[in-house]
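Model the whole thing, not chain by chain.
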Amino acid sequence: MISDNAKKQIDDWIAKYPQGRQSSAVMEALKIVQAENANQLSHDSIQAVADYLNMPGIAAAEVATFYENYNHQPVGKHIIRFCHNISCMLNGSDDLIAHLETKLGVKTGEVTKDGLISVKKVECLGACVGAPMFQIGDQYYENLTTDKIDDIVDGLK
Amino acid sequence: MNEVCFKNLDKDQCWSLETYEASGGYSTWRKIIKGEYTPDEIINELKISGLRGRGGAGFPTGLKWSFMPRNAQGQKYIVCNSDEGEPGTCKDRDILRFNPHAVIEGMAIGSYVMDATVGYNYIRGEFMEPIKRFEGALKEAYAAGLLGKNINGSEVSFDLYSHLGAGAYICGEETALLESIEGKKGQPRFKPPFPANVGLFGKPTTINNTESFASVPDIMQNGGQWFADLGVENSGGTKLFSVSGHINNPANYEVSMGMPFSELLTLAGGMRNGAKLKAVIPGGSSTPVLTAEAAMAMTMDYDGIDKAGSMLGAGSVIIMDDSTCMVEVLTRLAHFYYDESCGQCTPCREGTGWLYRVLKRIMDGKGKADDIDLLLGVQEKIMGNTICALGDAAAMPVESFLRNFREEFEYFIEHKKSMVKG
């Protein structure tokens, strides 16, 4: 259920915490397993993480459902996480989100038919001086315009 | 400008160990390793500096460090709060990207003062670029023999790790953050006991904000008095202000405490398109909104913003021009707290939902005549009745928006449309 590569990464995280406190690594372990499973966490993979960290399944499930960045429904290969909070809103994020939805033919929360992209409205991502902005993978894209969005989205493969 | 956390901002590779050391970085830490400082000397210097917690609460850092039972047996921890996520706030992101070694040295100095040989920097999980910079700086510091056990054969040990968030604003609350490091839901703990007595893994722990830690090395290098003199009474030093919204040059500005707001506005290029200033949220979304008149008369320091009727918070200045519909802004903020409430305390869990739903129905043209009283009643019932400050943070904007811009809410309810946008 958990690949050897994932186990190795999880072990690196466990090493940061005191002996017997391996459950501190649960947040990262869930991220690592999610990344290997089409960006999604199943009940079985949450249980596998719990077993690996020697913690109750329900404790791992609590973490997996409390935090925003775990997905329990199918998502696109790329998730566009669009900030719609105050600084972005003041800079026109609502219109840009509408533009993105029209361009992709999906609403926020949905996945494009080819499974490539999903769009999610998120709360503040902490880049307010670069508003409006969104995140794809590891990357923040700031000072967005409709043209910039078109370029970025057209480049996703 | 740019005298402390941002002092190397214009240099090439400003985040590198080489740049940091060239401007005196790690000189205090090296002295500590050589045994040239006592913990009390450092605490004293911090007290003179007037440094107050930069995460929002403004608690004096020197005093906080003195609360740790340094001589208690057993493991103690030092934790940095880089879980930046309050709408309007984005300064710690830049400190981590552009001056990560100052955070490391500040934490190292604190670890020595409080005899906490292990530290964690809790960085919000979305901050991949800052995380890579911080991790890179950690590697450099270890490779240079500045971190680890018995550094340079001394008695001094400090191991530092990052811990990454996974999307929860509440983890910026210090006890929720500790729960999160322990691999649990980020739900705040009752205080007391305070973290200085029962903190991470049940051990004495001190938590400070990124900017607070990053200010410590320069305070030690130049002296507490130097830092205090950069600012004004009760607000020593400089402060990073994240200026966003309807402004020509949105950015993080490191300026002296006590700068008039009007000067900061000019520094940030003035109002976009020459529009008229309507409102300012001076310290992040949790702090009360101010009218243009109140803001223009204010100075940017703890007392100055307090006098104007708000709080310095994290220094997150959101600028709004006269095209802004205040009903729309408050609704968006209410949604944020509704979304981010951890659900532990009933007044916050239920109250934030009520605030959002009532505001949403006003926005949808379905507001009722007594909705304003309802909103005021709900915020009053949240205020002061929850374990942590998120409840208050959700309540305060509601009260201040309704106090300062009540006519816009009344108009929206009566005419079923925005007074500003039509």
